[in-house]
Amino acid sequence: MVKKRLVIVGGGPGGYVAAVRAAQLGADVSLVEKDKVGGTCLNRGCIPTKVILHSAELFQALKSGARSGILADNIRIDWPSVLQRKKSIVSGLVAGVAGLLKANGVKVFQGTASLLNDKTLEIVSNQEKQVVAADGIVLAVGSEPAAVSISGAGLPGVIDSTQALELSNIPRSLLIVGGGVIGLEFAAMYGALGTAVTVVEMQDQVLPGVDQEMAAMLQQELTREGVVFHTRAKIRQIAASTLGLTAEVEAGGKVLSMTAEYILVAVGRKPSIARLGIEAAGIAVNHSGIVVNEQFQTNTAGIYAIGDCNGKTLLAHAASAQGVAAVEHFMGHKPGYFSHIIPACIYTTPEFATVGLTEEQAKQSGRAVKVGKFPLSGNGKALIENSGKGLIKIIAGVQYGEILGVQILGPRATDIIAEAALAIRLEATVEELITTIHAHPTISEAVAEAALAVYDQAVHWPPKDH
Ligand code: FAD
Fold first, then answer.
1. The pTM is what?
2. Cβ(39) to ligand 1 under 6 A?
3. Average pLDDT over residues 315-332
């Protein structure tokens, strides 16, 4: 039987996972990557940030070790070693992805692809130009940092998230423009490493769109660690000064002057679709990226767009799941992609993770909801690990008790959220979470307590009318 020829453009978590899945399903798969496989996530996103965050957290933990009975003197950071460790973990994982593609028989082209029409691509590399024909094409070209168009944005020292992972020194001071996920992770990272960090956010809360109470709690924790926040604040211009860079920021009707060694612009991402030839294939785009339907098909038959480049959910695991769904559809299968159950994690200290609806979103959707909250100061393991800082919130439907959303602020929230995602996926009820016995002592016990709190029956927290 003649195999279907599938060409995937981009080897990030969307593209390489799609390639492996398509090969498993029997397609003849080619993957084109202009840089390194693993994409943004592996090379300049998820993984390198977490390597540095890990060192930063360890540094903080050792500095405050006396609380746990550990007395250590002269704790310092060996920054070149931190960067070297990051490099070696990233290169090991990149090699691992290349090995997986090879093991699955995926042909990898090193070069830049552009569409010539709906069935043909041109691949340009250092050495040559070649034309490749396909029965199907998956665009998985990802995204790149969006810039701010203000005077001084191009000055040396005004950096994006990629450059913020390669600084030759730990900055004395850092002004972060944008209090979203990326901005807060860098605030937590450099704050823990000793940098004086200021965050400027245009909206009236950090993490716009996230549960207000939880976002405010996280902001409070980061403030306690020394990060300075200005919400409803807008950067107007940047100028070079003797102390580094000076930004003019409009906040609360006043114009503030802020000086920092570096200014990190973390105001969002834009799809990497320039020079991709989308016009040649007649593919529609809108302000967020390539327009797709629920199967991730573009308006041009046989061409799919997955991951960051369609602007739907800018997360690595969403890109991978979309890649799997797209190639399963292409190969004639019926994929299962649940866009309402995508966990989102923020690797600050404490961590924050959310899945499903927030209380605000559930109410806006017209549902009658009940909310259970359990503060981690009532959880033994959290008290041991971080003095009990954090909160778990469960949003459930009134009629059936079905779990609609879960938000977790606390130690290892990013792992514990998987239980909540599974519960929503299985349409579990509050009762089912309550009767799932959780091990003691664990932070996850607090998930069951938050479920009990939906009925004001938490064991380790007094009832509301107490
Ligand atoms: P990408 O990973 O961007 O991959 C696209 C690939 O396509 C790239 O390798 C690029 O070189 C290639 N390409 C582009 N155009 C062409 C072309 N014309 N020809 C050939 N190749 C091309 N997400 C999480 O889930 N968890 C996190 O902790 C997390 N942390 C992040 C931290 C930072 C600092 C950043 C910037 C992002 C983070 N993300 C995180 C987001 C995550 O990195 C992206 O959502 C994810 O990488 C998107 O995957 P993708 O496959 O769609 O695109």
1. 0.97
2. yes
3. 98
